[in-house]
Specification:
Number of helices of chain A: 9
Number of domains of chain A: 2
Shape of chain A: elongated
Distance between the termini of chain A: 59 Å
Number of strands of chain A: 0
Oligomer: homodimer
Strand content of chain A: under 5%
Radius of gyration of chain A: 19 Å
Largest sheet of chain A: none
DNA sequence: GCCTTCGCTTGACACTTGTCAAGAAAACTT
DNA sequence: AAGTTTTCTTGACAAGTGTCAAGCGAAGGC
């Protein structure tokens, strides 16, 4: 049994994180449906049985993993927001970061969209997905409001709208990147340069 | 064996369509990964073995089905485009239709996003998805250019950008509709009223 | 009226899946 | 050093998967 009241909760949690990290590798590569626990364990230092020692079931592992990942993501553009001193500079830095994260972490983003879509079919995923999506919306909204401020304008849409549209852009870019690779990313940056001015006036 | 050179291709194809129709029911309800061939056949007048009589494998059935469905969809807004006589009228009719199709065909749209996402993990899906996505982009572009004309303006983004953004809006609405239901749809219409003017100026 | 082809069902196959119990190994306690 | 608890492995289970071969009734040609 997992230690119910033991002291080294940190040790226990560190293993969970370790498992989550391995799980993310496999999930990102194969997607939610095709990543079996044996495959996940295979890409980890452990055997397949260990998952049920640290997690109740596959769903809990997946949710824990994606939370674990997205916790780091929602601050991705904070430096951009903080350091940019003009609207143009912010747009450039933002566009760069967007392209860069597709380049560096495409599997993770694929997984995110996979899980978000699966949440429409599997109720147990919904709570976590909704929460993370809200955090992402807030992250994007910080960018947009900061842009508006720097441009001496006000946002032309509410936060959910701005997020939905930029997310649509990002998702299309990710999709295209999957088949066409690198060249797509310039297009994404170009799109962002066109769209951001529409979002504040 | 399936009839290789027989005359009644129509009969053969009609069965394929029938199968596709049944498959769409199950796929829309359970999603791509969880819809087994037995389940699909269970929601049809046939037994589970018949699938391999009309289709080579599951992938072919799924692709055929989603093509079958989307073929009818890509004309969804053509009447709106044709009949609207002012920019405002077009926006209203477009927003209405968007909300209506979520109300009426949410499972189909969920399936579409599911498959589009899966195509990032499974190469065999890509060709069909790419093709359909292009058709959807064209469909949306007809709406946007018509709007621009009626508004005496020109589109402020290229077609892929406009599509990506409106698709993002739609997807977010579908997601919210899945958990919150009907009330979400008014929000979608409101968003469309805000966004369309941004897309042409 | 036989015989071939077509349309479909049935039942099996090989394999994968999540889950869990039993117990080995390691770590810690005393 | 012995005992206890934690950690992890192994092997099995039942259920479910896509696929396909064997066969059955009906249709249609001769």
């Amino acid at each position: 049994m997992p230690p119910v009241k033991s002291r080294p909760v940190d040790k226990y949690d560190r293993r969970r994180d370790e498992l989550a990290e391995s799980a993310l590798l496999t999930l990102g590569e194969m997607g939610y449906a095709r990543a079996s626990l044996r495959e996940i364990a295979g890409n980890s230092p452990f055997s397949h049985g260990v998952v049920h020692y640290y997690f109740q079931d596959k769903t809990e592992l997946v949710i824990y993993s994606v939370r674990y990942y997205k916790a780091r993501c929602v601050t991705r553009y904070d430096a951009v927001v903080r350091d940019s001193e003009s609207a143009v500079e912010l747009v450039e830095a933002f566009a760069d970061k967007l392209a860069q994260t597709i380049r560096d972490e495409a599997p993770m983003h694929r997984l995110w969209y996979d899980l978000r879509t699966q949440s429409m079919f599997e109720e147990p995923l919904r709570a976590a997905i909704t929460e993370i999506d809200a955090a992402l919306e807030a992250m994007i909204w910080r960018v947009v409001t900061r842009y508006a401020t720097l441009a001496g304008a006000t946002p032309s849409t509410p936060a959910p709208t701005a997020y939905a549209m930029l997310d649509g852009l990002f998702q299309q870019a990710l999709l295209a990147y999957t088949t066409a690779g690198e060249p797509v990313l310039d297009g994404l940056a170009a799109q962002v340069r066109i769209v951001m001015p529409l979002l504040a006036r």
